[in-house]
Write a structure and sequence with these properties.
By secondary structure, the protein is an alpha+beta fold. About 40% of the residues lie in helices and about 15% in strands. It starts with a helix and ends with a strand.
C-alpha cells in the first residue's frame, strides 16, 4: 500500500515513532516537539541532528530555554493531519461495524472502515450516500487529511465556513455572530483556502526554481572542481617540464664550468710538467759531469789530468746550469666561470618568470600559442609571439591557442610586423580539433570542425554570412589588434582594436581553439592578455 511504503516519512528521525507535534526546524527538517527539547537539553550548542544546522542563534553568553525555543518554532499541521489519519489505513484494520471482518474500504468523510457489505449499506443511507468511499489499498493519509471537513476551532463538531483573519481561526456562523462580530477582517473559508493554496503554489514554484538553480550551481561547481583537477595536472606537467629544462641547464652549466676548470688546470699542469722535464734533463747532465770531474780528481794522472781538466771545463761551461726557467702562469678561470653561472641564473630566472606566466591561476584564461604549429613558425616570448621564418606560398604558417577557448573571453593578437604598409589577407577562426600541425588548406577544408574568417567574408558550412570582416581586414597595419570571442550562445564574434564587429558566425563548434594564420603579408604576431567581455 502507498501508506505503508511512505510510513518512514511520518517517523521522527530521533525517536523513530510517528510524529507527535512535529516542529519545523530552521533547516526545514521535522522533529517531535519533545525530541527537540531533549536534544537541546543534552547539548549546549545542539544543532539539527540530521544536518547540524543551528536550531537557534546564540546571543551573548545566555543559553535559551529549550521549551521556549521549541514552542516558538512553527508546527507542521499538515504532517499532524497525515499522522492522525494514517492509522485508519493500517493493513490489519478491521471493519468498524463487523469486528471479525477485515476492512477493505474507507469513507474519506467520516473515516469509517468497512467491509464490502457495510460499504453497500453506507452508500444507501441518506446521510452518507454522498460520501466518497475508496479502497483502503489506494487511499493515502494525505487524501484522508484533505477530504476531512474543516471544523470550527471552538465548536469542534460544527463545520467551519468562515475564517477570522484577526484571530487566525476557522469559525462557524455561530461563532461569527457571537464572538467575532467586532472583528474587522472575516473572510469566506473557501476564499481564504484558495488564497493559501495560491500562496503555497507560488512558494512551490519559487522553491522549485531555487532548487533547479542550486542544482545547476552544484553542477557548475563540480565542473569547476574538474577544471581545477585538469588545471592542476596541466600546471604539474608544466612545472615538471620547466624543472627538467632548468635541470638540463644546470647540468650543462656544471659541465661547462667543470670543463673550464679542468682545461685551465690541465694547461697549467702541462706547463709545470714541461718545466720539470727540462730541469730534470739539466740535472742529469750536471750529475753525469759531476761524476766525470770526481773521477778525474781521484785518479789524477798528471798528463791526463791536464787534458781532462781542459776538456771538462769546456764541457761544463757549455752546459745550461741555470734553474730560472719560468712555467706558464696559471690563468684563473673565475671570470669565465662567473659569467657562465650568471648567464645560467639569468636564463633560469627568465624561465621561472615565464613559468609563472604560463601557470593557470584562479581559472583566468592565459592566451599562449601551442608549441605544435606550422613548420615555418618560431615561437618566442614564452610562446606568446609567433614569427614566420620562411616564406611559404601554401600557407603552412598556422598557430593555435594552447588551451580551449573560454566562453565570453576575448582572444587577441597584435600585428608586430608586416611586409606591406597596410592591408592583410590574415586568416583567423576557430577549430574543434586539438592543435596539430596543419596547413591552412587542411583546416580550411573542414567546415564541420572550423570557422574561417577572411577578406571574402565567412566560410562555414557553405553558408555565406555577410559581415564587415573583409572591410576591417583591409585596413590592418602594424599595431592593429584582431581577436575572436565565443559567447554563451556559441556565436563567434570578430574584434578589431578591441571593438566588437558583430557576430561573424553562429552555432560554432564548441569547445574550440583559436586559430591564426600568418599569411603572405603578416610576418609576426603576439598574443595579448585575455579579457572577459559580457
Amino acid at each position: 500500500m502507498a501508506a505503508v511504503a511512505q510510513a518512514h516519512e511520518r517517523e521522527c528521525p530521533v525517536c523513530t515513532n510517528d510524529f507527535t507535534t512535529p516542529k519545523i526546524l530552521p533547516c526545514g527538517h521535522l522533529l517531535c516537539r519533545q525530541c527537540i527539547i531533549s536534544w537541546m537539553d543534552s547539548k549546549s550548542d545542539a544543532g539539527c541532528p540530521l544536518c547540524t544546522c543551528p536550531i537557534v542563534e546564540q546571543q551573548g553568553n545566555s543559553s535559551p530555554i529549550a521549551v521556549d525555543v521549541v514552542d516558538a518554532l512553527p508546527t507542521d499541521s499538515v504532517m499532524e493531519a497525515i499522522v492522525e489519519n494514517a492509522p485508519v489505513l493500517m493493513s490489519d484494520g478491521m471493519c468498524t461495524a463487523c469486528d471479525d471482518l477485515k476492512a477493505e474500504y474507507v469513507c474519506v468523510h467520516c473515516l469509517e472502515k468497512m467491509c464490502p457489505s457495510c460499504m453497500k449499506i453506507h452508500k444507501k443511507m441518506i446521510a452518507t450516500r454522498s460520501h466518497d468511499v475508496e479502497s483502503v489499498s489506494t487511499v493515502t493519509p494525505e487524501r484522508l487529511a484533505a477530504s476531512r471537513p474543516a471544523l470550527c476551532a471552538e465548536h469542534v463538531t460544527e463545520k467551519a465556513e468562515l475564517f477570522c483573519v484577526d484571530h487566525n481561526l476557522a469559525i462557524c456562523t455561530s461563532c461569527f455572530s457571537n464572538k467575532h462580530r467586532a472583528c474587522l477582517d472575516i473572510k469566506s473559508l473557501d476564499e481564504k483556502m484558495k488564497s493559501a493554496e495560491d500562496a503555497l503554489n507560488s512558494l512551490r514554484e519559487k522553491l522549485l526554481e531555487a532548487g533547479d538553480n542550486l542544482k545547476q550551481e552544484i553542477v557548475n561547481l563540480n565542473v569547476r572542481v574538474q577544471t581545477a583537477d585538469v588545471t592542476e595536472q596541466q600546471n604539474m606537467a608544466l612545472v615538471d617540464k620547466t624543472c627538467d629544462q632548468l635541470q638540463k641547464m644546470v647540468d650543462e652549466c656544471r659541465k661547462q664550468v667543470k670543463k673550464l676548470i679542468s682545461d685551465s688546470v690541465s694547461k697549467f699542469k702541462k706547463s709545470l710538467c714541461d718545466f720539470k722535464i727540462e730541469l730534470e734533463k739539466r740535472l742529469g747532465k750536471v750529475t753525469s759531469h759531476k761524476h766525470l770531474v770526481t773521477r778525474a780528481t781521484t785518479v789524477r794522472p798528471r798528463p791526463a789530468l791536464i787534458h781532462a781538466a781542459q776538456t771538462l771545463t769546456d764541457r761544463v761551461n757549455s752546459l745550461d746550469l741555470s734553474d730560472d726557467l719560468e712555467a706558464e702562469p696559471w690563468v684563473n678561470p673565475s671570470p669565465e666561470i662567473t659569467k657562465c653561472c650568471d648567464d645560467v641564473v639569468t636564463d633560469i630566472s627568465d624561465e621561472l618568470i615565464g613559468l609563472k606566466g604560463l601557470l593557470i591561476v584562479d581559472e583566468k584564461p592565459v592566451f599562449v600559442f601551442h608549441e605544435t604549429c606550422g613548420i615555418n613558425i618560431r615561437l618566442t616570448n614564452f610562446r606568446k609571439t609567433a614569427r614566420k621564418v620562411e616564406p611559404d606560398k601554401y600557407g603552412n604558417n598556422t598557430v593555435f591557442s594552447r588551451d580551449v577557448m573560454a566562453v565570453n573571453v576575448l582572444y587577441e593578437v597584435r600585428i608586430d610586423e608586416m611586409n606591406t604598409p597596410a592591408g592583410s589577407n590574415l586568416f583567423l577562426g576557430v577549430m574543434r580539433v586539438p592543435p596539430t600541425p596543419v596547413t591552412l588548406p587542411t583546416w580550411s577544408e573542414h567546415p564541420k570542425d572550423s570557422v574561417i574568417l577572411w577578406q571574402a567574408g565567412v566560410r562555414y558550412k557553405d553558408i555565406d554570412i555577410k559581415t564587415n570582416v573583409a572591410e576591417a581586414l583591409k585596413f590592418l597595419k602594424v599595431g592593429s589588434r584582431v581577436g575572436l570571442l565565443v559567447d554563451s550562445s556559441n556565436n563567434l564574434h570578430f574584434y578589431v582594436d578591441g571593438d566588437d564587429q558583430g557576430v561573424a558566425a553562429k552555432d560554432v563548434p564548441y569547445p574550440c581553439f583559436a586559430v591564426f594564420d600568418l599569411d603572405s603579408t603578416v610576418i609576426q604576431v603576439t598574443a595579448l592578455p585575455t579579457s572577459e567581455r559580457t
